[in-house]
Amino acid sequence: MIFLCQVFSLLAICSTAVMAFPQQTIAVTTTAAPAQMTRGPELVCLENQTAIYTTDCTLGTPTSYCFSPEPPISCPWGSFPSVWHPDHCMEESTCYPVTVPWITTSCSNGALPYSTSTYYKGTLAGGYSTILKGYSCSCDSDEWTSTRQVGSTSQTFCMPHSQCPPGMVTTAVWDADCRHQLCPPPRTAEVNICICPDELQTPVYPNYSGARPTGCAY
Q: How far is CA 195 from the centre of its chain?
């Protein structure tokens, strides 16, 4: 059975490359202070420190501590500074290549961008001023989502319900929204979708966001 769903991908601007391990890390954990500390006039920090009043990330109890910011991380050419979370309540500075797989310029396989996030804005090694942005993508509301293994990667395709392009066929599947309840008219438990007739085939799309498939290919 095929269940209808909607899958989101995170993408951004810059070319594609293989994810690299952090090239430089500086620990900036915010859990060093005891949870029983509360805000009060007795918290006096050194000149280069800042008084932080917050809550414990696990218990949610009030906590305060003196914080000394780490010096800005220096990333090599072709990478940008960011953070990662090696453990619960921990955050570390690190460098990522500007070509990490989760940064791409556009949505693919018929998906449309619906929001944009900025990952980095500043100057990289070599003096290059850069803005790294990423898209969140989704299929159109009148399409269904097909996830297929293509080579070594899993890809998501936006597929039509009707008016199948040449090379596709129509099949009936169970509508997941109607699985445990009666469907209001005119919806029914079964819906028609377009699929490639051979499991080894994948949909083919024009090279722009939101494109409808034009057929199937091996």
A: 26
pTM of the entire structure? 0.53
> In this structure, are residues 8 and 138 in contact, taking their beta carbons and an 8 Å threshold?
yes
Look up residue 71 and give its two tokens: 């010096």
* Three-state secondary-structure class, residue 177: helix
DSSP class of residue 181 equals: S
**Burial (CB count <10 Å: 0-12, 13-18, 19+), residue 24:** middle
What residue type is 209 in one-letter code? Answer: S
Please choose, from the candidates 3, 7, 2, the residue with its C-alpha nearest in 3D space to the C-alpha of residue 157: 7
33-65 as b/e: b if 16+ CB within 10 A:
beeebeeeeeeeeeeeeeeeeeebeeeeeebbb
Query: Peptide bond before 186: cis, by omega within 30 degrees of 0?
Result: yes
| Token pair listed for 178 | 């109607």
Please give the chain's pLDDT, 218 residues, in tens. 333 333 333 333 333 333 333 444 444 444 444 444 444 557 889 888 888 888 888 888 888 889 887 788 889 999 999 988 888 777 889 999 988 888 877 889 999 998 888 999 999 988 889 899 888 899 998 899 998 888 888 889 999 988 999 999 998 877 665 544 445 555 556 778 899 999 889 999 999 989 999 999 99
Q: Please tell me the number of Cα atoms within 13 Å of 158 on its side-chain side.
A: 26
Question: Exposed/middle/buried for 77, CB within 10 Å: 0-12, 13-18, 19+?
Answer: exposed
